[in-house]
């Protein structure tokens, strides 16, 4: 539940959240003013049901393994 969400300001531009009970990473939130201000970025695997969700952005694609094919490729 919400009572287990812990947060910290991890950099000048982002705040990270995790579960204080199990340690799972939950998301990071952009806190810096700009085009991505107040956006949340979370691992897709965190969600039990992804029905109806779409991926609108792929980041760090230059660091992916060669065997991984992404939609933007």
Proportion in helices: under 10%
Based on Cα principal axes, name the global outline: globular
What's the helix count?
A: 0
The secondary-structure class comes to mainly beta
Mean pLDDT reading: 88
Question: How large, in whole angstroms, is the Cα Rg?
Answer: 14 Å
Main pleated-sheet profile? 4 strands, antiparallel
Q: What sequence of helices (H) and strands (E) makes up the elements?
A: EEEE
Distance between the termini: 38 Å
The proportion of strand residues reads 25-35%
Strand order of the largest sheet: 1-2-3-4
Low-confidence stretches: none
Topology, number of strands: 4
Task: Based on the model shown, name its key terms.
mainly beta; 73 residues; four-stranded antiparallel sheet; 0% helix
Please provide a written account of the structure.
The chain has 73 residues and is an all-beta fold. It has a domain at 2-47. 0% of the residues lie in helices and 26% in strands. It contains no helices and four strands. It has a four-stranded antiparallel sheet, with no helix packed on it. A hairpin with a 4-residue loop joins β1 (5-9) and β2 (14-19). The protein is globular, with a radius of gyration of 14 Å. The mean pLDDT is 88.
Short account of what is shown:
The chain is mainly beta and 73 residues long. Helices cover 0% and strands 26% of the residues.
